[in-house]
Amino acid sequence: MKQIIVFIMFSFSLLFADQWDGFFKESGFPRKVIDDGSVVKGKIYQAKVTYQISNNDGIKGNFENNDTAKVTVTNQKGKVISTNKFMNATELRTWARQNFTEIFSSVLGDEELNKEKITELTKLASLVLLNKNLD
Predict the structure, then answer these.
(1) In a 3-state reduction of DSSP, which class is residue 79?
(2) Which helix (H) or strand (E) holds 93?
(3) Phi and psi dihedrals of 73, rounded to 5?
């Protein structure tokens, strides 16, 4: 059941990409998204996450224009998935899509996560969201 809840939260975070602050709050990550270039460390469920945001456009609280971020996700066994450089919003979304299974596996703490498991979790999450009986 915990995995379903995590999946639902993660799915909603993908749908509302501009509302990361709420997702971080719900997952136990530091309470505020910091965009002054500082290195921020925290944990999202089973993964350790480090991010650094450069507020290049001078507008606090957004991630647009020429703002960039560097992100590192480390799973329980120490495997690292990283952007390796600062990326703008478009590049970061592309990186996240390309590395979705590894990132999601790290967050859930499940080394065996694959497309079939993601499909199964998606179906279960849909049932829960539609208030259908899981039996």
Answers:
(1) coil
(2) helix 89-98
(3) -120, 125
125/64 Cα distance (integer angstroms): 31
For residue 115, the surrounding DSSP H or E stretch is: helix 115-129
pLDDT, tens digit (0-9, with 9 covering 90-100), for 24-59? 555 556 666 777 888 888 888 888 988 888 888 888
* Total residue length of the chain: 135
DSSP calls for 3-63: HHHHHHHHHHHHHTTT-HHHHHHHHT--SS---EEEEEEEEETTEEEEEEEE-TTS-TT--
Q: Over 60: is that where the pLDDT of 21 sits?
A: no
